[in-house]
TrEMBL record:
It holds the Pfam family BTB. SMART domains: BTB. InterPro entries: BTB/POZ_dom, SKP1/BTB/POZ_sf. Residues 80-145 form the BTB domain. This is Speckle-type POZ protein-like protein.
Length: 243
């Protein structure tokens, strides 16, 4: 934190490198003894003054309309007529539901389906495929520690672009946006560009421009700059536009 007059300023760029988003500033902020020992400085007239800067980024995050779904059969082998094998894990499913909710998934593996009703998929990992099926059956997806949330969202972003699932794609974007900070903004920007994730890209650009004075001095920026000339130009244009 930075002290100035009777105010406290919390600036992550001034903190020790080991600080995290969960703990920076908190220890001093809630340390009652520090208030007591410095009452005249921090509590003039017994009043605590806090000042913070809030930067708001606004973009359209509306989810596309949901279609009718059958959520009672998710992970239920009853009447299943197709098996997906992903990373040596089997997922039983129902062709009529999958074909209705994700038609390109069956079309992509049509020959294997007609031959034996077993589909071997090596493009996805098992966690991501399970969440894909959860979405197909329930219109929901879980990005948690149990499902390796962040990595699953990244993988699903690729899957949704390939299978043309705009609603699930937006869910993935929103999940990644909730994890977006200056440390991963460049990585997420590249991911968004590769998968045509326009909402995620817009938020990444905002964070990068807002925190550019910090980001431009990192090793990640040097690597990004040398390998993504088009995105670097876009960042420069955005900086110039925002002044």
């Amino acid at each position: 934190y930075l002290e100035y007059d009777n105010f406290w300023y919390f600036d992550k760029s001034k903190l020790h490198a080991s600080a995290t988003y969960d703990d920076w500033g908190v220890t001093d902020l809630v340390n009652l003894q520090k208030f007591v020992d410095n009452k005249e400085s921090f509590l003039p007239n017994s009043v605590l003054h806090l000042r913070c800067v809030i930067q708001e980024f606004r973009h359209d995050i509306t989810l596309p309309h949901a279609t009718v779904i059958e959520n009672t059969l998710f992970m239920d082998e009853t009447f299943s007529d197709i098996t997906f094998r992903v990373q040596n894990k089997e997922f039983k499913a129902h062709k009529i539901i999958v074909s209705n909710r994700a038609p390109l998934l069956l079309k992509k593996f049509r020959n294997s389906i007609y031959a034996k009703n077993v589909v071997d998929i090596d493009l996805f990992d098992a966690d991501a495929f399970q969440e894909l099926l959860r979405y197909i059956y329930t219109d929901e997806v879980q990005f948690t520690e149990d499902t390796h949330g962040e990595e699953t969202a990244k993988m699903l972003l690729f899957i949704t672009e390939m299978l043309q699932l705009p609603r699930l794609k937006k869910m993935c974007e929103l999940s990644l946006i909730s994890e977006l900070f200056e440390e991963n903004a460049l990585e997420y920007l590249v991911l968004a560009e590769k998968n045509n994730a326009k909402t995620l890209k817009a938020f990444c650009m905002d964070v990068i421009v807002f925190k550019f004075s910090i980001i431009e001095s990192t090793e990640k920026w040097y690597h990004f700059r040398d390998n993504n000339s088009d995105l670097v130009d876009a960042i420069k244009m955005s900086k110039a536009y925002q002044g």
